[in-house]
Amino acid sequence: QVQLVESGGGLVQAGGSLRLSCAASGTIFRFATMGWYRQAPGKQRDLVATITGGNSTNYADSVKGRFTISRDNAKKTMYLQMNSLKPEDTAVYYCNLNWAGIQNYWGQGTQVTVSS
Predict the structure, then answer these.
(1) Hey, which residues does 69 pair with through a beta bridge?
(2) Closest CA to 30 of 116, 97, 113, 96
(3) Local structure of 7: helix, strand or coil
(4) Mean pLDDT by groups of 10 residues along the chain of 116 residues
(5) How far apart are CA 36 and CA 49, in angstroms?
(6) If 0-12 CB within 10 Å is exposed, 13-18 middle and 19+ buried, where does residue 70 land?
(7) What is the reported pLDDT for 28?
(8) What radius of gyration, in Å, describes the C-alpha atoms of the chain?
(9) How far is the C-alpha of 24 from the C-alpha of 105, rounded, in Å?
(10) pLDDT value at residue 52
């Protein structure tokens, strides 16, 4: 069983920065593809960024050049550095772990609010 715990959300002004963390339990972290997703009120949950076990990354077009995803396998932790934040980045951000399409887990989410 895997548990994911996000932290680092909060309120920030437009143009500011936040760093989200996702701490994982269990033994499959280093082999899994990790991802950040976000869901704004009344909207679907969308992909923000993913990082594979081999550290290949993928970003949504809306965050390219502003957000950076990374992972520390020794700490079983994934990060999302968010710079140049915009009001439209406001959402609940969720951590995801996917292992070979067989196991899929979600964190409880952390709120990010960007004021204009």
Answers:
(1) 80
(2) 97
(3) strand
(4) 95 98 92 96 97 97 98 96 98 96 94 97
(5) 5
(6) middle
(7) 87
(8) 13
(9) 10
(10) 96
